Amino acid sequence: MTRSEFHLAVADEFGDTQGRALVREMVLSPLGHRSAHDALEDGVLPKDVWAALCDAMQVPLSRRHGVGHRQPVGDTPA
Questions:
Q1: pLDDT (tens digit, 9 = 90+) per residue, 22-78?
Q2: What is the pLDDT of residue 67?
Q3: Which residue of 18, 65, 73, 77 has the lowest C-beta tally within 10 Å?
Q4: Which residues pair with 27 in a beta bridge?
Q5: How far is the C-alpha of 40 from the C-alpha of 47, rounded, in Å?
Q6: Which of 23, 28, 27 is nearest to 52 (CA)?
Q7: In sequence order, what are the residues at sequence separation of 6 or more whose Cβ sits closer than 8 angstroms to the Cβ of residue 10?
């Protein structure tokens, strides 16, 4: 999952406005008590940030694969 895929998945699941607010403001314990934004800036993989956000927001497993994906997204090569 790339950063752009992460942001698409957030907007798809939570809506653009609420998604941006969650990414910037919600502090997530699994990410070292950081926001998703801060974790991404600190180099945490987008797929790990997405998983932590989904867990916190109780997103059903069936919707955790992101926009347009029917199965888990692997790491995207750099």
A1: 999 999 999 999 999 999 999 999 999 999 999 999 999 888 876 555 555 555 544
A2: 57
A3: 77
A4: 35
A5: 10
A6: 28
A7: 19, 20, 22, 23, 36, 50, 53
Size (the chain), residues: 78
What radius of gyration, in Å, describes the C-alpha atoms of the chain? 11
CA–CA gap between residue 10 and residue 32 (Å, rounded): 20
Q: Quick one: 24 exposed, middle or buried, by C-beta within 10 A (0-12, 13-18, 19+)?
A: exposed
Report phi then psi at 35, rounded to 5: -75, 165
CB 66 within 8 A of CB 8: yes
Q: What is the mean pLDDT of residues 12-16?
A: 94
